[in-house]
Amino acid sequence: MEIQPDKQNIDQTFATTIYFIDFYQRDYKWTNEPVKRLLDDIFYQFEDTYAAHEELEPNRENVNDKYPWYYLNTYVTNMVGGRVFVVDGQQRLTTLTLILFSLLKMAKELDSETAGWLKTKISGYSGTKHQFWMNHEKHIQVFEGLLSGKELNKISAESGISAVNMLGNYNLIETELTDRLTDQHKFDTFVHYFLFRLVLINLSVDTKHVPMVFEVINDRGVRLKPYEILKGKLLGQIDKLELEQGKFNETWETQVSAVNAFNEDEIDNFFRHWLKAKFSETRNAGKRFDADYHREIFKSDMNDQLELDHNPAEVKAFLNGSFKYYTSLYCKIWVRTKELSSSSPAVFYNDLNDLDSQFMLIMSACSVNDTEEELKIGAVSSGLDRMFAFLQLQGAYNSNDFAVRLSQLSTDLRDAKAELIRGLFDKHLIEELNLQRSQDLATPVNFSLFSSMSVDRLPKRFTRYLLGRVDEFIAEGSKLEMKQPLKQLVTAP
Fold first, then answer.
1. Is beta strand 123-126 parallel, antiparallel or unpaired with respect to 129-132?
2. pLDDT band at residue 130 using 50, 70 and 90 as cut-offs
3. Is residue 233 part of a domain?
4. pLDDT (tens digit per residue) in 137-159
5. Which one, of 128, 133, 96, 103, lies nearest residue 15 by Cα?
6. Would you say residue 486 lies in a domain?
7. What is the number of structural domains in the chain?
């Protein structure tokens, strides 16, 4: 593997290269805390040296001679089709650009000779086209507004969280620099220090090894979420031109955003539920996906099934097939946890009882583009609701054993026809009843077990839930003269 390190100061970093934001990169997510920490680090060394050499003229020779250099960090790029893409380091490079914007504004206000120089560090010409060195194409209105001197509240942040954070951080930077750079001499000295003595190292890597370098850097630094690393390892296999033409990045972002709309980083939960649903035979086997599932996906046993390692054709098929279908299904289930659905009301009831295992079970039963999807959502959710309720009512519920049971059930449900789902739930319900109560029962409802149950042994949340659903659970029980005892049980003081 060929890596080309290049030590450079900021004057060199922002001079001739336009940095495109690679698809590996997250939104610009730095908020006030890391920005303030960066400024504190930069000024800590500057302030000490400035106090000792305050009489020196602010020029290149004096600053290079008297001020020690300061290492800011490494950023990683790779070149494709003549474009330089930032693989790692976008947060820092963007923040440095925001500092340059603030310095430019101050230079103009102070009538400093550094103004023209600072402006060339923000943008310049690439051929005949004038562009910002940090090419945030989706949020270009922020940089254009800052360059033109617009008031912050008049710059649109509708393009997303990156724009919001850029404007918020610029406001902090402007306040900090105004407080710290109290006169023109100190300001001009700092500009020279900032551009000449702050050092970055650029690592230029070839496209083939970008996913690996990206993962290692982020695992050893500020960790990204598993899905963010997975994105890089998957999309990094696809040729950039094909990536753009096939809109694979757009597919990923659309589906991830839809899932994350329900909870922050919910997409990580999606992958864990989906992997357990489709590739785990037991609960213990499924625990491998509870942490770094993005690593497990590429292990040899998993790759034998998924075939996503060094296989761009399969990655493209996965993104447009399983990934798109199951994330959409996951969102559909989430929506129904929020309000009753006429076709699958039990999804809502399961959520009341914190049975998030329904995500795994439903995805296990459904195949890609399943024509029986609605029937399966209804059958699985009602089966889980019924199973949980009958175990509680017959004194046979044990949370750990129930979780083990659902993992076994998930395996049996895998791609099952809708008409078989009720029978599979009954089979496991009876087995669990016999296990917990040491019985040899043949039906999922037993009067002797039920009649011996005390309301004091039922979770209060469950009894409140059951109160409104008595008639739904006594259809079978009525044959065993359970209707009245059931009502007595759930309405007892």
1. antiparallel
2. confident
3. no
4. 889 999 999 999 999 999 999 98
5. 133
6. yes
7. 3
- Assigned domain for 431 exists: yes
Determine how many CB atoms are found less than 10 A away from the CB of residue 116: 10
Does pLDDT of 260 surpass 70?
yes
Three-state DSSP state, 8: strand
First to last CA, the chain: 73
235 burial (CB, 10 Å; 0-12 / 13-18 / 19+) is: buried
Ordered DSSP codes for 202-251: EEEE-GGGHHHHHHHHHHHSSPPPHHHHHHHHHHTTS-HHHHHHTTHHHH
pLDDT value, residue 44: 87
Cα 69 to the center of its chain, rounded Å? 36
C-beta separation of 439 from 395 below 8 A: no
Indicate whether this model's pTM tops 0.70. Answer: no
The answer to whether 356 and 402 have CB atoms below 8 angstroms apart is no
Burial 190-205 (b: 16+ CB within 10 A, else e): bbbbbbbbbbbebbbb
Q: What are the structure tokens assigned to 353, written together? A: 């009882």
Owner of token pair 């329904």: 358
DSSP 287-352: GGGSS-HHHHTTSHHHHHHH--TT-HHHHHHHIIIIIHHHHHHHHHHHHHHHS--SS-THHHHHHH
CA distance 272 to 276: 6
Residue 465 pLDDT more than 50? yes
Domain that holds residue 8: 3-220
